[in-house]
């Protein structure tokens, strides 16, 4: 009976031993896992951190390179854009100039049909055969101003062979501009014709003379001159103003490369609404409330415009509005265009003494007159005195480089 009990004890001992082995194995495995994680995990994390940092650096380098490339591309793109803009601007200027310089057949035909300018219906062939000039100067004069014209001829305007030489060598054309009387072939017209035969310095306009028709006369001058002469500049000057031709030519030559220029002494006088004043403006209401001023425009004693502006006036003269004052009219024709207004105070020196001390200092004025008289006061008697005191060195005109 004892043997079975011992046998049972042996079996129980064997079972307990097996259980402990299993527990010991599980404990050892768990301990090994714990030890392994504590020992090797930091190494794996370090590797991962190093790897992440490497990838971050590579990404930063890639982004930096991409940014630099894009910046370079952006600079090239902006450079190309600016060059394209400049090319477009240059092309626009060229097109605008061509449009002005090459009026269509319809425009020329319209010029010919104008009741004021019937002689301008010229073919494009005739336009291309115009006389080449640098400056065409039109001296505004009247039938009653023979003494003024003679005083100009005796001072700043060359005569005879000298006048022809000035045209040939310097391209400077000077003419007294005058229209016709209201009566056909009147004694006034015949007197002008005889004077022109004597001096050959008068440009007749298809225009009826009258004090209140100066705006129309200005249109007629530019329209006639631009058909007869292919000039860089067209100048209007009054017959009671003193001009230094060499200084005028040198001044205009500085602006020769510009497409559309309007040069003179710019001013902005009051719009005179009172009926009893000399320069009354009947259309004063167009300029706003009483007391307003005109827009900037060149004083009427002398101003110059480039060829494309003279052509513009010639082509569009039937629809250009005329205000009471001729200089205001011209300013209104140009103010809505892409025109450079050049305010040159050397074109309105006072007499005396401004033009005198400037001439003595070697910086002669372009033009001189008295503001209070809108010209040289008593010009027939005084223009010689002004010429003696305010004229440029005689060599200036013939030494100036123009061509």
TrEMBL record:
Keyword Membrane: yes
Residues spanning the signal sequence: none
Root EC class: transferase
Cell compartment(s), UniProt: Golgi apparatus membrane
Keywords: Coiled coil, Glycosyltransferase, Golgi apparatus, Manganese, Membrane, Signal-anchor, Transferase, Transmembrane, Transmembrane helix
Chain ranges of the DUF4094 domain: 17-106
Gene Ontology CC entries for this record: Golgi membrane
Topology in membrane: Single-pass type II membrane protein
Pathway annotation from the record: Protein modification; protein glycosylation
Residue ranges of coiled coil: 74-101
Location, primary (coarse class): Golgi
InterPro entries on file: DUF4094, Glyco_trans_31
Cofactor (UniProt): Mn(2+)
Top-level division of the source organism's lineage: Eukaryota
Family assignment from sequence similarity: Belongs to the glycosyltransferase 31 family.
Protein name: Hexosyltransferase
Organism: Cinchona calisaya
